[in-house]
Amino acid sequence: MRAMRAEQFTGYEGLKFAELPKPAVSDGKVLVRITAAGVTPLDYTILSGKFHNSRAPLVLGNEGAGVVEKGGGRDFPVGSRVMFFGPYGAFEDGTYSEWVAVRKEDLCLIPVNLDDVSAASIPVAYLTAQVALTRAGFRAGKSVLSPAIGGSIGNAVTQLARALGARHAMSSTTNHAKAEQAKALGFNEVIDTSQEKLGDGVRRITDGYGADIVIDGIGGEVLSEEVGVLASEGSLTTLGYSASRKTTIDVTNLIVSQTSIRGLNMFSQPKTAVTEAWNVIVSQLKSGAIKPIVAQTFPLAEAADALRYLIEGRPFGRVVLTI
Length: 323
Fold this sequence. Notes:
The chain is an alpha/beta fold. The chain has two domains: about 1-120 and about 290-320, Alpha-Beta Complex (Quinone Oxidoreductase, Chain A, domain 1), CATH 3.90.180; about 125-265, 3-Layer(aba) Sandwich (Rossmann fold), CATH 3.40.50.720. The protein has ten helices and 16 strands. Strands 3, 5, 6, 7, 8, 15 and 16 form a seven-stranded mixed β-sheet that branches. Strand 13 (about 230-240), helix 8 and strand 14 (about 260-265) form a beta-alpha-beta unit.
């Protein structure tokens, strides 16, 4: 089968075309013919040698969509369209390939109103967003902030929070053109940090109240600013570090308002949490309350270009490989 494999973790040039054996299906696994694969910042982190415990050579890609060819049983009969997320592309070969042997518990049927490219952009972003919101105690009426509109987590958290009844579903961008693009797409509570500070924007939108929940996938100094916008007894969940792994926090922002910071590792979540998140996501997809945004697709052979476009081009929406 065709695959794009990281032969070495040396950056874009380490990603090479490879002809590999079609995976065998063992107990508990389902053979899926991949039709589309999501491209994520994690792929680049791994390819750059900055992710723990990944080992080259490795086929990248930890989310995808495709068609069941064997082993799905009654739940996922042959021909079923499925989407999935898991350790693929991080700790075992992933979705930058024509076939993947997927654990049955990782699969989710694709709603009929969703095409495969859109489906491939769903699992990582929306599962992470929903699990993070649940762990943070989200309920209708809460105010939520997730910076970086246009990015996978910023879009997913904002859409889900709004669909589930948030009082405010806020995001931000440093790019004025992206702020305008976000508004055109219906994101009405986006803070343009080229025009005002993040904290000022949150206070303006919430009439001084702040954010009950912050979901951060950026890290760095943005995380430091986010701590300062938390409402009393609010919480910040950190789950990424695209800007930086390090920041400086004024601890009085935590102490005075009795706020908290916690981390989230999706690879460590119990299956029950992921299943519950899928149930919410599929319901919202079927109703049309949430809609994935795909910026551009690339053929499998151009996986390195796709990843470069995601990291350096910083598009509004997801990048997906078609296979």
